[in-house]
Design a protein that fits this description.
The complex is a heterodimer. By secondary structure, chain A is of the alpha/beta class. Chain A has a domain of 222 residues: Amidase signature (AS) enzymes, CATH 3.90.1300.10. Chain A has 15 helices and 11 strands. In chain A, helix 2 packs antiparallel against helix 3, helix 7 runs antiparallel to helix 15 and helix 9 crosses helix 11. Chain B has 3 domains: 277 residues, no CATH class; 113 residues, no CATH class; 59 residues, Orthogonal Bundle (Arc Repressor Mutant, subunit A), CATH 1.10.10. In chain B, 41% of the residues lie in helices and 19% in strands. Chain B starts with a strand and ends with a helix. The chains are: A alpha/beta, B alpha+beta.
Chain lengths: 485, 475
C-alpha cells in the first residue's frame, strides 16, 4: 500500500482517504497487519476485532465514496478495555470480567461509530485502571515501544503504546489521576484529559466516578482535538455530562501567544522531580516565552496533600463501584462457596488482583464509621482547597505548565510492587482530576537514553482549545523521534 | 398498660411514576421475572443512573401532603451493602440532604412530627426455591422509586400507629404519590418500638420490626412486641436493640439477623447524580399542580355541599369512592341524594359482593342519570333501588332500564283526575266518611287509585289529585 505511514497523524490519514491515496479497508488491513506483527512484543491489545474492523472499514469507504466522510470516517482507532463495546468483550484487564460482553455501546463508542470510525480492538491497561505501569493487567503487562524492558505508564498503557508504535492511528483512554497523561508522556505521544463533564462517562466501567474522564491519546494535539470533537458533549445517559455550546477545539490553533500567561507552580519543580524532566520542562517553558508567552512562577501550596486526598477519594469510590462484582450476575464466579457470603468472598478473592484489592480495602477503611471524618471527609476538604487554589491561579494565568510525571519510564519490575512509591509518583497528575480541569500531556524532550519526557498543560474548565493551541504551537517546532521497533 | 409504648415509623412508599427512578424501565407492579430490567437497573458495568424528574416532583408532593419543609438543595448518597437483590451492591438514597424534612400529621387530637422524607430506589426480590435448594433473583423492582417517610417517636399505641399509617396512606393517594396497596407492597412499614415507665422521660431500648405490609400486622406486631418487652423488663432483663422480623402466621417477632453486629453502610455522596436544585418557581409549579387533599375535600363536602360530617368523612376516607362521588355530582349536582345513594345502597352492594368501585359495571354518569330520574319524580324511590341493582349486576343505562321495566311514572294528571272522579263516584260511602272528618278512608281511596292506575303512576300526583277531588265541593 502506497502513501501509508503508520506514524501518520489522523489528519494526514484522513486526507489520504479523501484523496484516494488508499482505501479505508486497505488502511485498516495495514494496521491489522502491524498488530499481528508487533503486538506480541508490546502486549498493547487484549482483544483485536479484525472482522468487525474490516466490516466497519468497508462501511466507511462507502461513506467516503458518497462524499459524506467525517473527520474520523475510516480512521483505525484503539479503545481502552474499560470502555464498553456492544458484542465485544470488555475486560478491564481483570480476571473478574475476562468473559464479560456488554450488551450496549458506551456513548463515546456510539459517537465514533456514528462517524464510521474503525475500531481495531480493545487495549490493555492496569486492572480496573488502577495503576501507573500497565503491569497489573490479568492479561500480562504492556511494554514501552521506546524500550520494551520498560513500562509504558498507566493505566492507559495499551492506549499510549499502541499509538506510539503505530498499532492504531489514535486511541481512547481514561484518566482518573493521570492515566491518560502519564502513559502519553512515557510513550512520547499526546494525551488529553478533558474537563470533568466534557465527555460522557456512560459505558466507562467506573473506577472513581467523580474523577474519571475518557479522553484521546494521539500523535498530535490536533488529532486529540478531532477525537475530542467526536466524543464530547452532553449525553442524556450521564447526568454529570455538561451541555456546552458547539465547541471548536481547534478554534485557537495558530493564535498569538503574546497575551498568554503560563504559570509554573514551584511545588511541581522540587527535588522529587528528576533533573532531566525538570530541565526539559523548563526548556519548554522558555520556548513558550520565545513564542511570546509570559511565564509566571506561582504556587499551589496544597499539592503536598494532593496524593493523599486523591487516594482516599478514588479508593472510596472504587470500593463502592467494584462491589457489584459478586459473581452472581456476570463475570467470574468462584467454583466453591456454600453460602452467598462465601461465594462472593471467594469470587472476589480469586477474581481481583492485589492492587485492586488494596484499593478496595483502603477505600472501605476511609469510609467506615469512626474513620470517615479523619479520612474521607478530610480528603474532600482538601479537594475543595485544591479547587480554590487552581481557581485563583487560573485567574492570573491562562494555563499551568508542569511535568506530567516526576520521571521518565522505568524498568518493568522496578517499582510496581512498592505502592507508596507508585502512589507518590502520581503527584504531578492527580490535581487536574481533583479540580476537574482539562490537562494535556505532550512530549517536550528525550533523555539521554532516548526515552520521552512529557510536559503537562492544565487549563480552565472547558478551555481545552487553549491547551490544544499551545501544544500545537510547541509541536511545530519540536523534532519528534519515533519509537524503533 | 403498665408501661408506656413509644413508637416511631419508617414508611416506604413506591411512587407512581411511569418509569423507574434511574432508567426508562416501566415501574409498574408485576411482570414476568426479569423482564422489566435494562443494563442500568441491573447495574451492568459502565452504566450510570439518570434521575427521573417525575420522581422528584412526586417526592415534593409527598412533602407538601405531609406538611414538610421542601429543600431547594438535596442530594443522593450511596448506601453500601452486599445482598443479591441489590445488583450494584449499593442503594442510591438521600442520607445527608433529604428533599423534605420537618413535617407534621394530625391524627385526631394528636400531632405526629415527620422527621424527613427522602427519595431512594427499591431493591429486587429473591425467590427461594427450597425444593431445588436455590435462590433466584428478580430485578423487576430494582430501581422503582420509593420515598421513605420517617416519623419522630411520637406515637404511643398500636392504634395511633395504625391511624397514622392510614392517614399518611390516604394523603399519599390523594396527592397522587402512591397507590398505597399494602398487599402489593407499594406501602410498607418498619416499626421502631420501645417501652418505659409512665412519667419516664428517657426512651427505653428500641427494637425495629421490619417490613410490615398490612395495618393488621402493624397492630399485631406492636402488641406482641409490647408484651415481649414488658415481660423482659418485668423479669429484670434488658431489651436488646435489634432488628426483628414479624411472623404473620405465629404472630411473633424474632431477630432478623443471626449476628447482630450493626451494619456499616459507609454512606458517601453519590458522584453520578448531580444534586437536586429546586427553584422557587419549580416549587410553585408543583404546588399549583397539587391535587385536592383529604382535609380540603372534607371541607368542600360539609361546607359547600352541606353533607353531614359523618357522611363526608366516610366518603373522603375511601378515595376511590369519593372520586366516584365527585364524578357523579359533576354530571348531576344533587349532593345529598347522590351521597346517600352511594353510602347506603351502593356501598352495601359493594360490601356484599366484596368488590370495589373500580370494578363497577357502570359509569358515574349512569348513577347521575339514575339520581336525576329519582329526583325529578320520574321514578319512585323503590324503582331507583331496583335500577341500581340492575346497574350493579349487569350494567346498562338507567333511562332504558326504567323504560323497559315500566318504572317511569305516569305524570299525566288528566288521567289521574279522571280516575279520581271514577273512584269517588264508585265509593260514595267512603267519600261521605272522609268529608265527615275521617282521615282513615283516604288510605283506602289511595289504594283504589293505585290499583286502577298501576305501578307507573306517581303516588305524589295521585295523592294530590285525590285530595283535590275530595276537597272540591260536590258537583
Amino acid at each position: 500500500m502506497t502513501g501509508f505511514d503508520a506514524f501518520s497523524s489522523v489528519a494526514a490519514l484522513s486526507a489520504g482517504l479523501q484523496s484516494r491515496a488508499f482505501s479505508a479497508p486497505e488502511l485498516t488491513q495495514a494496521y491489522l497487519d502491524r498488530i499481528a506483527a508487533l503486538n506480541d512484543r508490546l502486549n498493547a491489545y487484549i482483544t483485536v476485532c479484525a472482522d468487525e474492523a474490516m466490516r466497519q472499514a468497508e462501511a466507511a469507504q462507502r461513506r467516503i465514496d458518497a462524499g459524506q466522510a467525517d473527520a474520523l470516517t475510516g480512521i483505525p482507532l484503539g479503545i481502552k478495555d474499560n470502555i464498553c463495546t456492544s458484542g465485544v468483550r470488555t475486560t478491564c484487564a481483570s480476571r473478574m470480567l475476562e468473559t464479560f460482553v456488554p450488551p450496549y455501546d458506551a456513548t463515546v463508542i456510539a459517537r465514533l461509530k456514528a462517524q464510521d470510525a474503525v475500531l481495531l480492538g480493545k487495549l490493555n491497561m492496569d486492572e480496573f485502571a488502577m495503576g501507573g505501569s500497565s503491569q497489573t493487567s490479568y492479561f500480562g503487562g504492556v511494554k514501552n515501544p521506546y524500550d520494551t524492558s520498560r513500562v509504558p505508564g498507566g493505566s492507559s498503557g495499551g492506549s499510549a503504546a499502541a499509538v506510539a508504535a503505530g498499532l492504531c492511528a489514535a486511541s481512547l483512554g481514561s484518566d482518573t489521576g493521570g492515566s491518560i497523561r502519564q502513559p502519553a508522556a512515557f510513550c512520547g505521544v499526546t494525551g488529553l484529559k478533558p474537563t470533568y463533564g466534557a465527555v460522557s462517562r456512560y459505558g466507562l466501567v467506573a473506577f472513581a466516578s467523580s474523577l474519571d474522564q475518557i479522553g484521546p491519546i494521539a500523535r498530535t494535539a490536533r488529532d486529540c482535538a478531532l477525537l475530542l470533537s467526536a466524543v464530547a458533549g452532553r449525553d442524556e445517559n450521564d447526568g454529570t455530562s455538561r451541555a456546552l455550546p458547539d465547541v471548536d477545539y481547534l478554534a485557537r490553533v495558530g493564535m498569538s501567544l503574546r497575551d498568554v500567561t503560563i504559570g509554573l507552580p514551584q511545588e511541581f519543580f522540587e527535588d522529587y522531580v528528576s533533573e532531566e524532566v525538570r530541565a526539559a520542562v523548563q526548556a519548554a517553558a522558555e520556548h513558550f516565552r520565545s513564542l511570546g508567552a509570559t511565564l509566571k512562577t506561582v504556587s499551589l501550596p496544597s499539592l503536598r496533600y494532593a496524593v493523599a486526598s486523591y487516594y482516599l477519594i478514588s479508593s472510596a469510590e472504587a470500593a463502592s463501584n467494584l462491589s457489584r462484582y459478586d459473581g452472581i450476575k456476570y463475570g467470574y464466579r468462584a467454583q466453591t462457596g456454600e453460602t452467598y457470603e462465601e461465594l462472593i468472598k471467594n469470587t472476589r478473592r480469586e477474581g481481583f488482583g492485589s492492587e485492586v484489592k488494596r484499593r478496595i480495602v483502603l477505600g472501605n477503611y476511609a469510609l467506615s464509621s469512626g474513620y470517615y471524618d479523619a479520612y474521607y471527609n478530610r480528603a474532600v476538604q482538601i479537594r475543595g482547597r485544591i479547587r480554590e487554589e487552581y481557581a485563583a491561579l487560573l485567574r492570573e494565568c491562562d494555563c499551568i505548565l508542569t511535568p506530567t510525571a516526576p520521571t521518565v519510564s522505568y524498568p518493568i519490575g522496578q517499582q510496581e510492587n512498592d505502592p507508596v512509591r507508585m502512589y507518590s509518583a502520581d503527584i504531578c497528575s492527580v490535581t487536574a482530576n481533583i479540580a476537574g480541569l482539562p490537562a494535556l500531556s505532550t512530549p517536550c524532550g528525550y533523555n539521554a537514553q532516548g526515552l520521552p519526557i512529557g510536559m503537562c498543560l492544565t487549563g480552565r474548565a472547558f478551555d481545552e482549545a487553549t491547551l490544544i493551541a499551545l501544544a500545537d504551537a510547541f509541536e511545530s517546532d519540536f523534532s519528534r523521534r519515533e519509537a524503533q521497533l | 398498660m403498665k408501661y408506656e409504648t413509644v413508637i416511631g415509623l419508617e414508611i416506604h412508599a413506591e411512587m407512581l411514576t411511569h418509569s423507574k427512578v434511574f432508567c426508562g424501565c416501566t415501574a409498574e407492579f408485576g411482570g414476568e421475572e426479569n423482564t422489566r430490567v435494562c443494563p442500568r437497573c441491573s447495574g451492568l458495568p459502565g452504566t450510570l443512573p439518570v434521575l427521573n424528574q417525575g420522581a422528584v416532583r412526586l417526592a415534593v408532593k409527598a412533602g407538601l401532603a405531609l406538611g414538610c419543609e421542601i429543600h431547594p438543595y438535596s442530594a443522593f448518597d450511596r448506601k453500601n451493602y452486599f445482598y443479591p437483590d441489590l445488583p450494584k451492591a449499593y442503594q442510591i438514597t438521600q442520607f445527608a440532604h433529604p428533599i423534605c424534612t420537618d413535617g407534621a400529621v394530625d391524627i385526631g387530637e394528636k400531632t405526629v412530627r415527620i422527621n424527613r422524607i427522602h427519595i431512594e430506589e427499591d431493591a429486587g426480590k429473591l425467590v427461594h426455591d427450597d425444593y431445588e435448594n436455590v435462590s433466584l433473583a428478580d430485578y423487576n423492582r430494582c430501581g422503582v422509586p420509593l420515598i421513605e417517610i420517617v416519623t419522630e417517636p411520637d406515637l404511643r399505641s398500636a392504634e395511633e400507629a395504625r391511624a397514622l399509617v392510614e392517614e399518611i396512606a390516604l394523603r399519599l393517594k390523594y396527592a397522587g404519590v402512591c397507590d398505597a396497596r399494602m398487599e402489593q407492597g407499594s406501602l410498607r412499614c418498619d416499626v421502631n418500638i420501645s417501652i418505659r415507665q409512665p412519667g419516664e422521660t428517657k426512651f427505653g431500648t428500641r427494637t425495629e420490626i421490619k417490613n410490615l405490609n398490612s395495618l393488621k400486622s402493624i397492630v399485631r406486631a406492636i402488641e406482641y412486641e409490647y408484651t415481649r418487652q414488658a415481660d423482659l423488663l418485668d423479669a429484670g432483663r434488658p431489651v436488646i436493640q435489634q432488628t426483628l422480623h414479624f411472623n404473620e402466621n405465629h404472630g411473633t417477632t424474632k431477630p432478623l439477623r443471626s449476628k447482630e453486629e450493626a451494619h456499616d453502610y459507609r454512606y458517601f455522596p453519590e458522584p453520578d447524580i448531580p444534586p437536586i436544585l429546586l427553584s422557587d418557581a419549580d416549587l410553585a409549579a408543583i404546588r399549583d399542580d397539587m391535587p385536592e387533599m383529604p382535609a380540603d375535600r372534607l371541607r368542600r363536602y360539609t361546607a359547600d355541599y352541606g353533607l353531614p360530617e359523618a357522611d363526608a368523612r366516610q366518603l373522603v376516607a375511601d378515595k376511590a369512592l369519593s372520586d366516584f362521588y365527585d364524578a357523579v355530582i359533576a354530571v348531576y349536582p344533587a349532593y345529598k341524594p347522590v351521597a346517600s345513594l352511594i353510602l347506603v345502597e351502593l356501598l352495601r352492594r359493594l360490601n356484599d359482593a366484596g368488590s370495589t368501585v373500580g370494578e363497577l359495571r357502570f359509569a358515574p354518569a349512569d348513577l347521575a342519570a339514575l339520581v336525576r330520574l329519582s329526583e325529578t319524580g320520574e321514578i319512585s324511590k323503590n324503582a331507583a333501588k331496583e335500577i341500581l341493582r340492575t346497574l350493579f349486576e349487569a350494567g346498562g343505562h338507567p333511562d332504558e332500564i326504567a323504560e323497559a321495566n315500566g318504572y317511569l311514572m305516569n305524570n299525566d294528571t288528566a288521567a289521574v283526575e279522571a280516575a279520581a272522579a271514577e273512584i269517588l263516584a264508585a265509593n260514595p260511602k267512603a267519600v261521605a266518611e272522609y268529608r265527615g272528618g275521617s282521615q282513615k278512608v283516604f288510605g283506602f281511596l289511595m289504594g283504589q287509585m293505585c290499583k286502577k292506575l298501576g305501578k307507573s303512576a306517581n303516588p305524589q300526583i295521585i295523592r294530590q289529585c285525590l285530595a283535590e277531588a275530595l276537597e272540591r265541593p260536590e258537583a
